[in-house]
Amino acid sequence: MDKKIPYYKAEEIAEKSWMITNAFVESSYAICYLVEGGDYALLIDSILGMGNLKAFCETLTDKPILLANTHSHSDHVGGNFHFDHCFMPDRDIRSFQDSIGIKKEQVVEMAKEMALPEYKDLIEADDNFADWNPIKVYPIRDGDVFDLGGREIEVVDVGGHTEGEIVLIDHKSRIAYAGDACNGNTLLEFPNSLPIISYLRNLLHLKEHQKEFDKMYGGHEIFDPSIVDEAIETVAKVVAGTDDKCERPGIMGGTVFYAAEKVKDGYARVDGKHFNMSYRPDKVTAPDETRQVIKLPEKKD
To answer: What per-residue confidence (pLDDT) applies to 4?
Structure first.
């Protein structure tokens, strides 16, 4: 790994538990985590793929590393391709496979765009980058447990942001690794987002586990477990039709609603609470397919 470019930095947040961010940029867009047990270490998400994350993790632990993704979006799986495997929520595997085929040169260009000025000219298409080629994918689902050796990490289904979104609870450190399950800008406007009423049911399921953790470390921010209560309150208003319906441009184009009024030109809620979410009004009470419906994709003109 090129010693001139600090692709990653780590901060120990609990015993043998590290928060990992990109270090060669002004502000790391995404966050991932490494948790070590007596036999194995578990890497939770792999962020954007800018730098050899596997090699960096091997400077933190000498244990074999398993990789698990909280969901299939590219900013959480980009580093997967330095590994030979990943554990993925079963309902997100298909969308993960759709991301296969990106060339490392494309990731290099993204890295150059995001890098601090002193690193831009040093970045090359070397071993710090990998083509997004097929790897082994193992399905995980609600209730599964990673036994790392004296440390168990439990899988909790909190589908909404994506169909298969999960939270991983480390019962030893009492930390919930939350991905994008619920945060200050939870996006439920994607084609593979669940209907809002299904998301509410899954938040209530997470609430059942709330007493098992004291802190939530997400894919983009850190927050208190009380955000789960804010999320349930806010999402229930969307289902009841009593939310603020704050119109904003959608990340996929068009217009979406945010459940709570936001400050002008920002993400913060006007009322000072933290959780917020975007959604499409046609997917509030739409039925959630509990089965996988397999069909050919529509042909593009």
So the answer is: 83
CA atoms within 13 A on the CB side of 298: 2
Angle between helix 227-240 and helix 196-207 axes, rounded to 10 deg: 150
Sequence ranges of the domains in the chain: 8-283
What average pLDDT does the segment 27-46 reach?
96
Whether residue 300 is predicted with pLDDT greater than 60 in this model: the reply is no
Q: Does domain 8-283 have CATH number 3.20.20.370?
A: no
Question: What is the rounded (10 degree) CA torsion for 48, 54, 60, 64?
Answer: 130
Residue with tokens 């043998």: 16
CA of residue 252 relative to chain centroid, distance: 18
Q: Tell me the residue ranges of DSSP E strands in the chain.
A: 8-14, 17-22, 31-36, 41-44, 65-68, 85-89, 136-140, 145-147, 152-157, 166-170, 175-179, 186-188, 215-218, 222-223, 246-249, 255-258, 277-279
Asked if residue 21 lies in contact with residue 8, where contact means CB atoms within 8 angstroms, the answer is yes
Mean pLDDT value across the chain: 94
Q: Above 60 in pLDDT, residue 198?
A: yes
What pTM was estimated for this model as a whole?
0.94
Helix (H, G, I), strand (E, B) or coil at 76: helix
Name every residue whose Cβ is closer than 8 Å to that of residue 123 and which is 6 or more positions away in sequence: 5, 108, 111, 112, 115
